[in-house]
Amino acid sequence: MTTTGDIKVEATSAPQGPEGQRYLASGRALSMRLWEGEAGGTEKAPVRRDYETVGYVISGRAELELEGRTVSLEKGSSWVVPKGAAHTYRIIEAFTAVEATAPPAEAHGRDAV
Q1: 38 and which of 16, 33, 43, 95 could share a cystine (Cβ 3.0–4.6 Å)?
Q2: pLDDT surpassing 50 at residue 102
């Protein structure tokens, strides 16, 4: 097995990204990140990213606006944001979610604000 990062990453000591996300395990083609306790009432700026994202809600509620369509996210919901799609998140209630990105969001400045 070949890997570019650590085989095991603890969320409590994982590197933090520019918007508060924690970068978890990462390989060459895929990585994970944790959004933990995002405050309710927060609205993220609209973006287009150079990676695909799939996510899973652990707790809380949010709305994902994706290419003009609004989707409610709550505990147990999963979602997909295609590479290059215009999107934003509105956090309605303290929100914790895990996302996987392909290619890795933290590599080559892809997650820059």
Answers
A1: 95
A2: yes
